[in-house]
Design brief:
This protein has one domain. Helices cover 41% and strands 6% of the residues. The protein has five helices and three strands; from the N terminus they run αααααβββ.
Length: 111
């Protein structure tokens, strides 16, 4: 998930700090997230796992494609092929405009 387009990350009051900062301000649901705490993943991203894409990721991907029009698996495949820096650059072009950052969850722009 690109944290930069998530409602919890973008909100002004008590924003989420992302999975890398689980000790800071994280609700139990994210602290205990099965994706974040997966012991099979050997690198920073699920695409570095020998089981990529696993069933858990496929389920989440289906939900995100249906509800939000984006694919977590496609994001990870892009990272796998092009690297995180190119992914972040592409995401900036995709989600940021003069209106602000477009939130995938609530379809609003945040400044």
């Amino acid at each position: 998930m690109n944290c930069g387009i998530c409602r919890a990350f973008l909100r002004e009051k008590n924003p989420c700090q992302g999975c890398k900062h689980a000790e800071k301000n994280m609700p139990v649901t994210r602290a205990n997230c099965k994706m974040r705490t997966c012991i099979k993943r050997t690198g920073n991203f699920c695409c570095q796992c020998p089981e990529f894409p696993c069933d858990r990721l496929r389920i989440m991907d289906k939900r995100y494609r249906t509800k939000y029009g984006m694919s977590e698996i496609e994001n990870l495949e892009f990272i796998q092929k092009e690297g995180i820096r190119k992914f972040v650059a592409a995401e900036r072009k995709r989600w940021i405009s003069e209106k602000g950052i477009f939130c995938v969850h609530d379809k609003k722009h945040y400044k």
